[in-house]
């Protein structure tokens, strides 16, 4: 059986899973690229932040550190943008798969109540939908969960590196 046939058998829920899978992968790939570029540009970013701090004109070291933390937090917040969407996709995908399971089993029992067991192919179609959507939900959720954790670790690494470089420049 081909992938398209599996998606068709899963019905609307599989199309929703396919859509959110594409969106999630687009976000994860763009974030991975963005973070790799940011890791290479940490010295330039830290210099920009240091310039902003000197433009403020604070002479006190404690004030400089607080201002640096604020600028750094803003920069990191921009780097984290989109990661919550990946986390949401990782969280709701198994739930959508479970919803497909329930809908498929409901269809199977509806067919059984209408025709009895005289038409096992119709009954099997509902059970097939149930199993396909469950698998689809897991296939979408697992890589998004791993990707979210990996990207979050990359953001943490970026933040740590920037903090270290900024502190070296302002103190």
From TrEMBL:
The keyword Transmembrane helix applies. Keywords: Cell membrane, Membrane, Protein transport, Transmembrane, Transmembrane helix, Transport. The chain crosses the membrane at residues 12-34, 88-109, 121-146. Pfam families: MotA_ExbB. It comes from Halobacteriovorax vibrionivorans. Belongs to the exbB/tolQ family. This is MotA/TolQ/ExbB proton channel family protein. The keyword Lipid biosynthesis does not apply. Residues 65-163 form the MotA/TolQ/ExbB proton channel domain.
């Amino acid at each position: 059986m081909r992938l398209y046939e599996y998606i068709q058998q899963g019905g609307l829920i599989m199309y929703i899973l396919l859509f959110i899978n594409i969106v999630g992968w687009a976000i994860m790939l763009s974030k991975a690229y963005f973070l790799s570029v940011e890791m290479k540009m940490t010295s330039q970013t830290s210099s920009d932040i240091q310039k902003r701090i000197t433009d403020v004109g604070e002479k006190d070291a404690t004030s400089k550190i607080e201002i640096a933390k604020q600028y750094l937090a803003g920069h990191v917040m921009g780097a984290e943008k989109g990661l919550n969407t990946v986390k949401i996709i990782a969280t709701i995908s198994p739930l959508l798969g479970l919803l497909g399971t329930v809908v498929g089993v409901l269809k199977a029992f509806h067919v059984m109540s209408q025709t009895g067991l005289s038409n096992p192919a119709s009954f099997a179609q509902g059970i097939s939908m149930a199993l396909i959507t469950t698998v689809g939900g897991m296939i979408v959720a697992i890589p998004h969960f791993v990707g979210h954790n990996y990207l979050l670790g990359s953001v943490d690494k970026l933040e740590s590196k920037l903090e270290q470089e900024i502190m070296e420049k302002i103190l």
